[in-house]
Design a protein that fits this description.
Layout (H helix, E strand, L loop, with lengths): L2 E5 L6 E5 L4 E5 L2 H7 L4 E7 L3 E4 L3 E6 L5 E6 L6 E6 L5 E5 L13 E3 L15 E2 L8
Parallel strand pairs: 3-10, 10-11
Antiparallel strand pairs: 1-2, 2-5, 3-4, 4-9, 6-7, 7-8, 8-9
Length: 137
C-alpha cells in the first residue's frame, strides 16, 4: 500500500491515506480549471474510507455534466483545493496531486474532459484521452 500524505499551503489542513490508487489522471473540465485557477487538475483517486483529513475544511458543491453533484474540499484559510468527489463515483475521493508532500511517484494514465482542454496544452507520454468522463461498461 502507498502512504499518501499532504496538506494545504498554510498547513492548517493535513491528510493521510494508506491506499493503492484507483487511478491517476489529468482533468481538463471547466470546474477543475476554476477550482484550481489553472488549465487542469492532476488527481489521484483512492477509496474514500482510506483518507483521514485533519483541520477544518469547506466544501463547494456543484453539478457535474451527469447532472449529479460534485464536491470540492478546500482550506478556508489559504484556499488550497484538497479533494474532489462526485456522486457518480460513490466511495472514491480524488486528491489534488499538487497538495501531496511527495507527488514525484504520480504518473497519470489518462486525460479526461479533453473537449474543454486549453488548445495550447499538450502533455507527453502515453495518456489515454477522453472527451468527457469515461464510463465503465
Amino acid at each position: 500500500m502507498a502512504k499518501i500524505e499532504g496538506g494545504c499551503s498554510c498547513g492548517k489542513v493535513r491528510y493521510s491515506a494508506d491506499a493503492e490508487p484507483i487511478f491517476a489522471g489529468v482533468c481538463h473540465c471547466k470546474s477543475c480549471q476554476k477550482t484550481t485557477g489553472t488549465s487542469y487538475s492532476v488527481v489521484v483517486a483512492i477509496p474514500a474510507p482510506a483518507l483521514t483529513i485533519t483541520g477544518d475544511t469547506k466544501t463547494y458543491d456543484s453539478k457535474g455534466d451527469t447532472g449529479q453533484s460534485t464536491h470540492s474540499t478546500f482550506c478556508p484559510n489559504c484556499g488550497s483545493p484538497i479533494t474532489g468527489t462526485a456522486d457518480v463515483m460513490q466511495g472514491v475521493v480524488m486528491i489534488r496531486a499538487g497538495t501531496m508532500d511527495d507527488s514525484s511517484w504520480v504518473k497519470p494514465s489518462m486525460e479526461i474532459y479533453c473537449d474543454s482542454k486549453m488548445p495550447w496544452v499538450a502533455l507527453g507520454g502515453e495518456l489515454k484521452s477522453f472527451p468527457k468522463m469515461p464510463m465503465p461498461g
